[in-house]
Each structure stands twice: as C-alpha cells, then as structure tokens.
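Hi support team,

I've been running sequence recovery on a batch of backbones for a student project. Most finish fine, but this one hangs at about 90% for roughly twenty minutes before it completes. I'm not sure whether the input is malformed or the queue is just slow. I've pasted the structure tokens below so you can try to reproduce it. Let me know if you need the job ID as well.

Thanks,
M.K.
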C-alpha cells in the first residue's frame, strides 16, 4: 500500500459516524470502555499467539494499557502493547463495520430514529464511539508481525481518513491519540478517567495505568474462592461482561474438578427492563484456558436452550495452544458443556423450589429460548420439571402451572395429563373439546405457543402419566368421573324417536361431508357445543397437523 494515502469511509461508516456525532449523549464515558476493550483484545491475541508458539516482535514487552492526558492541549492517549495492525489491517478493521457491536447498533438506530443515546451504551459500538468526544483521532500502530512497518491513521470522523508511515521506531502495539471536542474537554482529567475505568473496565485482565498510576484492581473473579466475593463484585463483573445496566437475576459460581477441571461464573440476565439486547443465534460462554482468553461467546460450552446465560469458563485441562478450529471436536469441551448444563438446570430447579415468584420472573424472561430444550434427552426429567404452562386451574392467563402442580391436583383415578392448544385463554374456552373437562372438573393445560405441543409430544410422559391432547382423550375414562357438582344435570338419555331423528341427520351429514371425514357420530362429550371435530384414535392432534402443514409449505 502506498504511504500517505487518503481513503473515503464506506457509506455505512459515514452513516454510523453521522449518528454518533449528531446525537446528544448522557453517557459519553463509554468511549473509553470501547478503546480499553480493544486494547485488551489486542493483548489477549498476543498472549494467545505467544502461548501457541508464534514468533512476535517485542516478545518481552509487558502487556499493559497506559493512558495519559494533557489538560491544556485537551488530548488523551490510550496505548497498548497488543498485536497492533498493519496498514492493510487498519483499512480492513477500522474501515469496515462487519463486527457485531456496530452492526447491531446500526440496525437498532435505524429502527429508533437517531435516538442513539438510549441504545449506544447497551452494546459495544466499538472504535467509532470515540467520535462522541473526539475532534480528531490518530492511531499509531505497529503489528506484531516481525519486521512490520509502523503506520499512522488519522481522521476527523467526517468522510475520510489518511494512512501514512509512522516516524520513529515504534514498538509493537497501538496508541490512540484523541484531540477532544470543545464540549468534551472535561475528559482530559486523570481523576475522571480513573473513575470511568473503575466503573466500566475494572475487570480487564491487564493492568491499566492513568498517568502512571495503576487503576483496575479486580482479579479474575471466577478463580477466587466464593466466600471472598461480594454480591456487588459479582454484579459489577456482570455489568462489565454484558453492558447490561440491570443486575443479573441470578449468579452461579462453580468450581469443578472431575471429570474435567474448570471454574465458571455464570449469570441469568434479568430482561424485564427490556433493556437487554439478546440475539438468540449469538450465544455462548467466554472460554479461558488458565486465564488466557481463547474464544468469546463459544457456543459449544452451553446448549442453545440455555443460551440466555452469560459468563465465563476457565479450565486448566486444555492446552493453551488449542486452535479455535479444533475446539469443536474437543471431548473436554463436551464434558464441560454437559456439566454446565446440569449445574444450570439444578440451579434453576432450586430457584423454582425456593422462590416461585423469582422463578416465574425467570420464566417470563427466558421461556422462549428455554423451551428449545425439549430435545435434550439426557436432562429430560429436569427439563420437564422446569416447564410451566397456563392451566384451567389458574385464575387467569398469567398463572403458571408445572407438571408437578398438575399431577398433585389430579382427580382420584385420573391417569393422564390433558392439554389443549389455542392462541389465548378465550379461544381455548370456546374449543368444544374442553367442554367435558370443565363439566367433570378435570384440569387441562393451556398451550398458547406452537412449540408447546412439540415439547409435550417429545416428552410423551411425565412421571408415569401420559401427556394427552384433550381431543384424543379416552372418553370412557373421562365418563367414569362424576360431573362436578356445580354443573347442570347431564342431558337426558336419548329416546327411540330421538335416535331415529339423529340417525337421519347423521346420514345427511355424512353424505354432505363425504370423503372429508372418516365418520360422523353422536357425541356424549358435548353439552353446550353442537359438534366438534375429533381425530381418529392414535392420530395426531389437529393442532399438530396444522403445524406440520405449515412447516411443509
Ligand atoms: P470490535 O472490537 O467489536 O471488533 P471495534 O470497532 O472496537 O470493533 O474495533 C474494530 C477492529 O479494529 C477490532 O476488531 C480490531 O481488529 C481493530 N482494533 C481496534 N483497536 C485495536 C487495537 N488497540 N489494537 C489492535 N487492533 C485494534
Ligand atoms: Mg471493540
């Protein structure tokens, strides 16, 4: 690449910069969080590469972040001894928007107009957030590749940037120099910078210095003994990890020795504020090997149905030089995953037993993802116990019933667990199949979401009880139960004249419906409704048929 070249930003970056520079912010502090996290990532890469034997320039350089500020010149610098960038990498990494934070931000910003302020703090907007405070930025960087040329990138964040060869003999790493906007000169204050770091970057695993003074203090929390850690420290770590402004709903800190050694610190986010952004496809836990970050949001560490969990796993048992590609086939990862899964399920089970309200809150937050667990056969019992449905026994549509609740309320002699699908409680009440259950006072689970029936179909049984769609219930078994006292008397038995009338009517209906039905029969299950559709014995429920039809289209 030619030295001293000028480049125009890609259209989407110009758009992002427009939003960033033209919004009014209540929380500009986070620009420092972003720069520090990039510095930390760059040093994680050094730690990772040197552990796997890659030769790097300045191999002996201490891994640290140095921040300085010049009150008079309104300048801040953020320097790291990380992996650095070549000029090609500068164009590639700083010139594109492929990385997650900014792309998500743009999508949200487009949805919400330019109210960037309300969303900017929630996920990493990345490097460009520096233009909330910067009039001009330069990046002086030298790649860790032996013999790489140091380069300088400069921009005012409007339209274009330049790249030139750096003067002097720069060591490996990156220095970001920020000339503050007039309305942001307050940031050129070491105390202000220290307090921002304590708030947002306290858990960065490399030392951070402001004007030579060490600021961040937190060790790798997950490696510390539990009894030494306060709730506040856990919450702070969670905020550091997720950028969520709300405390987590639950925290799970585990140390396991067999069959594989690992420490994990896991959180259940509390999404009730609606302030938490979660992409169901982007899940996973951060993987460390002996405190060295190997992969962020690694999917193989947790099943998707527990993908709402956030946190870190750190193991001694993997080699540091494991490549990200071979992680997937690694047996130890599979063992960590199954242990993590069991521990999380056990924790949720305990929460459900100890604090029904807290569990209900969890359920409302995360049931959509959690329900995907119906395929986890190894943990089917725990999964089934954690399920909640609305039920005819609940006072309203908000009520939550577990399968165990249902069983505890079963009638004497009742063997099966019954359910009906429908879009709402009202819709289900109008379903004629529910009538006999109401009359007999037999509880029915209400399934509002399409996935519910798949779940019950996959489970088939709970304890010794079959899970049965109301429309497929065994009528003889239901008839054996007396009508509930408060319902009106059963219809009178049919007389000979009635039989004949019905026979004529049924013959007429059969001839009208023809091939479309298998049979037309007199029903004993209905009282308030004139007719209902039933599936042949052993057939699929009508709801299931509808779903399969939709899916096969
Ligand atoms: P993200 O960190 O989510 O990838 P950023 O906008 O913060 O997005 O950074 C974009 C990219 O620029 C990074 O992925 C990295 O490749 C590069 N980068 C930024 N800062 C540094 C740095 N201090 N050292 C090395 N590379 C950096
Ligand atoms: Mg970043």
């Amino acid at each position: 690449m030619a030295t001293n070249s000028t480049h125009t930003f890609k259209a989407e970056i110009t758009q992002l910069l427009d939003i960033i520079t033209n919004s009014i912010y209540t929380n500009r502090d986070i620009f420092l969080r972003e720069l520090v996290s990039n510095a930390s990532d760059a040093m994680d890469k050094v730690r990772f590469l040197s552990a796997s034997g890659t030769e790097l320039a300045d191999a002996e350089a201490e891994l640290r972040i140095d921040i300085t500020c010049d009150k008079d010149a309104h300048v801040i610098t953020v320097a790291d001894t990380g992996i650095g960038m070549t000029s090609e990498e500068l164009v590639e990494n700083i010139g594109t928007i492929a990385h997650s934070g900014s792309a998500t931000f743009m999508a949200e910003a487009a949805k919400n107009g330019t109210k960037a302020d309300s969303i900017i703090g929630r996920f990493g907007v990345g490097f460009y957030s520096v233009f909330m405070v910067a009039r001009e930025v330069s990046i002086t960087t030298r790649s860790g590749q032996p013999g790489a040329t140091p380069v300088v990138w400069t921009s005012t964040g409007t339209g274009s940037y330049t790249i030139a060869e750096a003067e002097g003999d720069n060591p490996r790493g990156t220095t970001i120099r920020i000339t503050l906007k007039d309305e942001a000169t307050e940031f050129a204050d070491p105390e202000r910078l220290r307090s921002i770091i304590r708030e947002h970057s306290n858990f960065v695993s490399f030392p951070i210095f402001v004007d030579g003074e060490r600021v961040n203090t937190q060790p790798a929390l997950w490696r510390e003994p539990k009894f030494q850690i306060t709730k506040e420290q856990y919450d702070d770590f969670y905020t550091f990890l997720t950028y969520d402004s709300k405390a987590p709903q639950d925290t799970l800190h585990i140390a396991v020795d067999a069959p594989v050694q690992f420490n994990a610190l896991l959180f259940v986010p509390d999404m009730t504020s609606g302030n938490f952004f979660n992409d169901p496809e982007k899940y996973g836990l951060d993987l460390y090997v002996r405190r060295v970050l190997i992969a962020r949001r690694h999917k193989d560490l947790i099943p998707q149905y527990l993908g709402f969990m956030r946190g870190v796993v750190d193991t001694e048992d993997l080699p540091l030089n494991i490549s990200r590609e071979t992680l997937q086939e690694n047996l130890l990862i599979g063992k960590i995953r199954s242990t993590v899964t069991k521990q999380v399920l056990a924790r949720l089970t305990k929460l459900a037993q100890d604090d029904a309200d807290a569990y209900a809150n969890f359920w409302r937050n995360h049931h959509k993802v959690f329900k995907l667990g119906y395929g986890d056969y190894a943990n089917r019992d725990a999964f089934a116990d954690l399920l909640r449905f609305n039920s005819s026994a609940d006072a309203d549509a908000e009520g939550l019933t577990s399968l165990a609740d249902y069983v505890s309320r079963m009638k004497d002699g009742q063997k099966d667990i019954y359910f009906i699908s429908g879009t709402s409680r009202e819709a289900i009440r109008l379903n004629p199949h529910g009538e006999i259950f109401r009359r007999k006072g037999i509880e029915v689970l209400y399934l509002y979401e399409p996935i519910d029936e798949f779940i019950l179909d996959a489970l088939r049984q709970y304890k010794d009880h079959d899970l049965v769609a109301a429309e497929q219930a065994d009528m003889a078994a239901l008839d054996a139960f007396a009508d509930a006292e408060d319902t009106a008397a059963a219809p009178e038995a049919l007389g000979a004249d009635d039989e004949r009338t019905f026979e004529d009517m049924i013959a007429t209906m059969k001839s009208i419906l023809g091939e479309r039905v298998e049979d037309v029969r007199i029903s004993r299950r209905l009282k308030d409704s004139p007719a209902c559709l039933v599936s042949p014995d052993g057939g699929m429920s009508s709801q299931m048929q509808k779903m399969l039809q939709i899916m096969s289209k």
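--
Follow-up from support: It reproduced on our side and the slowdown came from queue contention, not your input. The chain is about 35% helix and 20% strand. No action needed from you.
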